[in-house]
Design goal:
The protein is mainly beta. Helices cover 3% and strands 35% of the residues. The chain contains 3 helices and 53 strands. The strands form 12 sheets. The chain has a 10-stranded mixed beta sheet with strand order 1-3-5-10-7-8-13-43-42-41, with no helix packed on it. Strands 14, 15, 16, 17, 18 and 48 form a 6-stranded antiparallel beta sheet that branches. It has a 5-stranded mixed beta sheet with strand order 45-53-52-47-49, with no helix packed on it. The longest helix has 13 residues, at 708-720. The protein starts with 21 loop residues before the first helix and ends with a helix. InterPro entries: FA58C, Gal_Oxase/kelch_b-propeller, Gal_Oxidase_central_sf, Galactose-bd-like_sf, Glyoxal_oxidase_N, GO-like_E_set, Ig-like_fold, Ig_E-set. Keywords: Carbohydrate metabolism, Polysaccharide degradation, Signal. This is F5/8 type C domain-containing protein. It holds the Pfam family Kelch_1. Residues 80-192 form the F5/8 type C domain.
């Protein structure tokens, strides 16, 4: 083989071409690409997106190609190396399949790049698609990538974990689009010069979800869907005209990824504060349109204008407090940095903001070399008891805020032995015990070396000095130094850490970390997980899915740059896998007492088998390494009869912040169920929440989210006709 790189892609060939059966050499009447040498006039140029990591262009000399929808000899035009020609499908079909036989086995295929027909109109564009791989042309398994590409004529890319394959298939679906046909000017395939050893005991990566935007912010919805958004443009945050945001939604039950531009709230929602308030409404504040507030009603899929903040902010943090209101502080990246960005609070019932002049921002500033406009960014905030907020970082100085009256701030001491840790992360993995884990970061926002520092913080009553300990055995912290990474608490109480780099520089993809880690609280240790092949650094994020997997995505949003990632990847933690890589049997929630409970209330859950533990994890919203919504509450279970178990929600709303929570049950092996989402409200009292945005109450409810994968496979069959 002759890859178009200065180094060789090494592929194992057993027996040579003559040893392969004749049907395999010419599957489905494929058209042979007769080239004496692969010297295409067109080679993909990744000027506005991140190229396949360590990817080499696979030589096409021995390729054969088949299309299920073409005219005469059109199919081979998709791989002829000439971007002035293109394959055109038939008009009467809605599912279009192109299959490439690479001619030799055991390439470590890692990406597919597709150039649409280079036409003046917008015809022939492939948006809805999936990519599958096979070693024999018959067994395809699950897609390695799927989703929705942008509806425009530029180069499209699907990247995924390197996988041994000889056959590559791209399926396009035109249903629900304005396309009557699709075309491909050039289809290019990439492979890595290495295989990544797979060990199911370390988890597994894939599939990749392709979005029509560069997703830099993400939020859970109570339905199980995921909302993501970028800025005024799908791939660019600067030079904003303001007033709009590109958005997508992923529906795991059907696999569909939507695309739209939100203009309802006249808000460019790049670099905002994000919080899900006590009613279940997503509150997005500031950013490029620095005074704006947007409210997302996920039930109606509707954006609602909120009241403008009292101060213009960008890169601020916000957090939901014990009565369901939203506190925000900092944010000098936009709206000016000459005045301190002290706190203010949003009331969902009154739909109003109130300044908190006593909630001073200065105590939480880092000593950033670039000054205040960087020093008050991305606070690690945790709503706590009695209208208090604990600020764990990123400054090495910690503080207690109180949002009653005019607000107050009280020093909480240093994060002992740590330094300022901008663009690090922090997560409350056990709210009952007040346990917070902080991870990595760097002293300055940019041009600064990351650390592997990890601290275990235990908070008690408001304004008490917390206990700070070094996390990691023998004080070692994480295995890797990280900044711009992301963190998720899992149902079993472990903490997943992914991505990042050792030297913080926005829109740079050097010195990256590709091996995630898992923190075990029971023995205060970190382990390394399954290495992946997709870079996640600046503007990346992770979020927990209701099926107990993690969605890890984003990065970039810099226009014509090579750091844009239009995708996300699913990580399956080890607790869902057997030693052979197959899915473990998992417990199933049959019904719950109600999908609307209040703090201190007793509830019950009925399962299909014995379970030994349970946990609540609050729905998250995240951007720029911050997710102040997520927290976990371990739930002791009391067996009532059969497979019916009772639990009691903690009575303090500062522990159980009002809003939507995912209820997981786990078996004796620690394997979690698919979650049932429950809205938790506060009772009558000083922390009483403002009102219920979504009434999902009742006496007994069957789960609305059981398992997305069977439905996804069925939906693929409907989409693509197989």
């Amino acid at each position: 083989m002759r890859p178009h790189q200065p180094y060789l892609i090494f592929a194992a060939v057993t027996g040579g071409v003559d040893a392969i059966s004749r049907p395999s050499l010419n599957p489905l009447g494929a058209q042979h690409v007769s080239l004496k040498a692969d010297k295409p006039s067109y080679i993909p140029s990744f000027t506005d997106q991140s190229p396949p990591y360590s990817g080499c262009l696979v030589d096409r000399t021995d390729w054969k190609v088949f299309c299920n929808s073409d005219t005469e000899d059109e199919c081979k035009k998709a791989v002829d190396g000439d971007n002035s020609t293109y394959w055109r499908s038939r008009d009467e079909m809605t599912s279009h399949v192109i299959t490439v036989d690479l001619g030799r086995p055991a390439y470590h295929v890692s990406a597919v790049a597709m150039l649409p027909p280079q036409r003046d109109d917008a015809q022939g564009l492939i948006t809805q698609h999936k990519v599958s791989l096979s070693e024999d042309g018959n067994n395809w398994g699950e897609p390695v990538a799927y989703g929705t590409w942008p509806a425009e004529g530029r180069l499209k890319l699907s990247t995924f974990e390197p996988k041994s394959a000889r056959y590559v298939r791209l399926v396009a679906d035109t249903r629900g689009t304005n396309q009557t046909w699709v075309g491909i000017s050039e289809l290019s395939i990439y492979a890595t010069p290495y295989a990544i050893p797979q060990n199911p005991s370390l988890g597994a990566w894939g599939p990749t979800l392709d979005f029509p935007i560069v997703p830099v912010s993400a939020a859970n919805e109570a339905s199980g869907k995921i909302a993501v958004w970028s800025s005024w443009a799908q791939d660019l945050y600067f030079s904003t005209p303001g007033g709009q945001t590109a958005m997508s939604r992923w529906d795991p039950t059907g696999g569909h990824i939507s695309s739209r531009v939100v203009t309802d709230t006249h808000h460019d929602m790049f670099c905002p504060g994000t919080s899900i308030d006590g009613t279940g409404m997503l509150v997005v504040t500031g950013g490029n349109d620095a005074e704006q507030t947007s409210l997302y009603d996920a039930v109606e899929d509707k954006w609602i204008p909120g009241p403008p903040m009292r101060m213009r902010r960008g890169y601020q943090s916000s957090v939901t407090v014990s009565d369901g209101r939203v506190f925000v502080i900092g944010g000098s990246w936009s709206g000016g940095s000459s005045r301190p960005k002290d706190g203010e609070i949003y009331d969902p019932k009154a739909r109003s903001w109130t300044k908190l002049p006593g909630a001073k921002v200065d105590p939480m500033l880092t000593d950033d070399t670039e000054g205040r406009w960087r020093a008050d960014n991305h606070g690690w905030l945790f709503g706590w008891k009695d209208l208090s907020v604990f600020q764990a970082g990123p400054s090495k100085a910690m503080n207690w805020y109180h949002v009653g009256g005019n607000g107050t701030v009280t020093p909480a001491g240093p994060r002992i032995g740590d330094e300022d840790s901008m663009s690090g992360s922090a997560v409350m993995f056990d709210a009952l015990a007040g346990k917070i884990l902080t991870l990595g970061g760097s002293p300055d926002y940019e041009m600064s070396h990351a650390t592997n520092n990890a601290r275990l913080i235990t908070i008690g009553e408001p304004c008490e000095t917390p206990r700070v300990e070094v996390a990691g055995q023998n004080g070692g912290g994480m295995h890797y130094k990280r900044v711009f990474h992301s963190t998720v608490v899992l149902p079993d109480g472990t903490v997943f850490i992914a991505g990042g780099q050792t030297f913080g520089l926005a829109f740079n993809e050097e010195n990256v970390q590709l091996t995630p880690e898992l923190y075990f609280p029971h023995n205060n240790s970190f382990i390394q997980l399954q290495t992946n092949n997709l870079v996640r650094v600046y503007h990346s994020w992770s979020i927990l899915l209701p099926d107990a997997t993690v969605l890890n995505g984003g990065g970039g949003l810099c226009g014509n740059c090579t750091a844009n990632h239009y995708d996300a990847q699913i990580f399956t933690p080890p607790y869902l896998l057997n030693s052979n890589g197959n899915r473990r049997p998992r417990p199933k929630i049959i019904s719950v007492a109600s999908r609307k409970l209040h703090v201190g209330q007793e509830g019950w859950v009925r399962t299909d088998s014995d379970v030994s533990s349970a946990s609540f994890i609050r729905l998250g919203s995240t951007t720029h390494t911050v997710n102040t919504d997520q927290r976990r509450i371990p739930l002791p279970l009391k067996k009532v009869s059969g497979h019916k178990y009772r639990f009691t929600i903690p009575s303090k709303p500062g522990i159980t912040i009002p809003g939507h929570w995912m209820l997981f049950v786990l078996d004796a092996d620690g394997t979690p169920s698919v979650a049932e989402t429950i809205l938790i409200t506060v009772g009558n009292g000083p922390d009483d929440g403002p009102y219920d945005h979504e009434d999902i109450g009742g006496d007994s409810h069957e789960p609305t989210w059981q398992s997305w994968k069977p439905a996804l496979i069925e939906q693929f069959g409907q989409w693509f006709g197989y």
